[in-house]
């Protein structure tokens, strides 16, 4: 709308000391929108079908946005005992009130009832958090109270057609308040669905009420009833003028927006040949996507994007989580891609093995500082961790191992199996490869060693 106005919503509760809440009941800042996101439901995470071509996996889901409104936050009510999971309950027990957040401004998204499963609800919240991070509206940290979710659930009769909205939304709506993570949202939704199903199956009515969620028991509990319609006595807010937003202002803001998550994911898929799943992992945090592209943009030999993506989303994410780093930019190592690029260059050129690369990554992170591109190489050289990749050197080592008396019996078996055309000859060749690896203490470059093994065996065949 071109005009957005504020109202006072009057009601009495422990967490509202003023007796009213400033909100936007009739004139929200926006209405009738939609949020589209890439659903994880049905996604093939990393397989032959999703790994190489970057084709679409999963599906794009869309949920209608009824309204987007600005309002005041309330306080937080806490039960004295934690039997109710930390929220006030309908058992008459003593309640404490935390007013630290009361009066703070918040942005409320009200979605239409288009979600059909707990997993979809969690997906939606993750997508919304990613969007808010991309446009720098909110850091999305649930643990710090930057985001929280209220969940509304109602059940329709089995077999209700999707286009029969009157019947689809005929169930009694129950609200679950203040869920502080997508995981808890999913658990609360699953429990509430089961609870309502059990009531309806036994012929009992579902009560219209507000419930909380106990993370320990993974169950919802009753907070207050909504049996009677409450008169909130909405009145115009006298201390805040109306917001007049022109089309020019809206267009200017739209032009200034950064690349949105869906567009960024599609571009990364098209540009770097990643799967939609891998691209989605990178795009979930804007800082991670920027780190990935900056890493590939550094000068030097071309680095496979799949290698970079896998190391960021698997090894680096895992190592940071092991150090209790909650946000990707919070560790000094991620302030520059130079350190990881230097490590991946060594891995891609087979100067080091994957096991060594993982060890070097841990050592780099232990430094708790931004590191340059040569830091990984310095650690590798200091510990004599470089792989042996010179063909002549590997051939000489392979000849030495095959000439050892301990290998003579395996060589006789290999010759016999080779003459018989048996597949077991290939298994014996792998045993030779393992023997050379042990001899070099794992420093032989696998692809170069495989060629050396074949050449040495051809030489032995020629002598027979």
Structure characteristics:
single chain, 464 residues, alpha+beta, 3 domains, four-stranded mixed beta sheet, three-stranded antiparallel beta sheet, 14 strands, 42% helix, 17% strand, elongated, ATP binding, nucleotide-binding
- Unreliable segments (pLDDT under 50, ≥5 consecutive)? 42-57, 82-88
Helical stretch count?
A: 16
Major sheet: size, sense and barrel closure?
Answer: 4 strands, mixed
Q: How many distinct domains?
A: 3
**End-to-end CA span:** 89 Å
Number of strands: 14
Mean pLDDT: 86
User: How much strand content do the residues show?
Assistant: 15-25%
**Reading side by side through the largest sheet, how are the strands ordered?**
9-10-11-12
The succession of helices and strands, N to C, reads EEEEHEEEEHEHEHEEEEHHHHHHHHHHHH
Structural class comes to alpha+beta
Q: Roughly how many Å is the radius of gyration?
A: 30 Å
Overall morphology = elongated
Task: Describe what you observe in this structure.
The chain has 16 helices and 14 strands. It is α+β, with helices and mostly antiparallel strands and 464 residues long. It has three domains: 3-41 and 60-77 and 96-249, no CATH class; 277-383, no CATH class; 391-461. The strands form five sheets. Strands 9-10-11-12 form a four-stranded mixed sheet. A three-stranded antiparallel sheet has the order 3-2-13, with no helix packed on it. It starts with a strand and ends with a helix.
């Amino acid at each position: 709308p071109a005009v957005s106005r504020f109202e006072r919503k009057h009601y009495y509760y422990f967490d509202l000391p003023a007796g009213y809440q400033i909100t936007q009941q009739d004139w929200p800042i926006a209405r009738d929108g939609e949020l589209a996101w890439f659903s994880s439901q049905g996604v093939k995470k990393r397989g032959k079908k999703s790994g190489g071509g970057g084709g679409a996996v999963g599906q794009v889901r869309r949920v209608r946005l009824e309204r987007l409104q600005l309002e005041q936050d309330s306080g937080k009510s806490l039960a004295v005992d934690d039997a109710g999971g930390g929220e006030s309950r309908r058992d008459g027990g003593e309640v404490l009130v935390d007013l630290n957040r009361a009066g703070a401004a918040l942005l409320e998204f009200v979605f239409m009832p288009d979600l059909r499963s707990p997993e979809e609800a969690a997906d939606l919240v993750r997508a919304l958090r990613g969007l808010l991070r991309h446009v720098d509206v909110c850091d999305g940290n649930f643990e710090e109270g930057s985001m929280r979710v209220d969940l509304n659930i109602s059940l329709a009769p089995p077999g209700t057609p999707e286009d029969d909205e009157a019947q689809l939304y005929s169930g009694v709506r129950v609200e679950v308040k203040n869920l502080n993570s997508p995981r808890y949202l999913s658990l609360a939704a699953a429990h509430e669905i089961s609870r309502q199903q059990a009531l309806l199956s036994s012929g009992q009515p579902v009560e219209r009420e507000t419930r909380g969620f106990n993370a320990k028991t993974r169950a919802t509990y009753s907070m207050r009833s909504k049996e009677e319609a409450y008169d909130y006595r909405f009145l115009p807010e006298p201390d805040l003028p109306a917001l007049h937003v022109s089309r020019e202002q809206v267009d200017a803001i739209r032009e200034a927006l950064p690349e949105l998550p869906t567009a960024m994911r599609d571009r990364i898929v098209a540009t770097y040949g990643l799967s939609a799943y891998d691209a989605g992992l990178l795009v979930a945090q804007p800082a991670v996507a920027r780190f990935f592209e900056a890493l590939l943009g550094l000068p030097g030999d071309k680095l496979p994007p799949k290698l970079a993506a896998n190391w960021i989303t698997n090894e680096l994410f895992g190592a940071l989580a092991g150090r209790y780093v909650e946000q990707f930019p919070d560790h000094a190592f991620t302030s520059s891609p130079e350190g990881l690029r230097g490590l991946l260059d060594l891995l891609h050129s087979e100067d080091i093995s994957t096991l060594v690369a993982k060890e070097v990554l841990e050592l780099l992170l232990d430094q708790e500082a931004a590191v340059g591109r040569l830091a990984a190489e310095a650690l590798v050289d200091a510990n004599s961790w470089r792989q042996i990749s010179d063909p002549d050197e590997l051939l000489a080592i392979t000849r030495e191992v095959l000439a050892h008396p301990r290998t003579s019996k395996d060589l006789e078996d290999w010759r016999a199996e080779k003459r018989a055309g048996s597949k077991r000859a290939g298994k014996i060749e792998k045993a030779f490869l393992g023997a050379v690896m042990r001899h070099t203490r794992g420093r032989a470059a696998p692809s170069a060693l495989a060629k050396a093994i074949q050449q040495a065996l051809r030489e032995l065949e020629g002598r027979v």
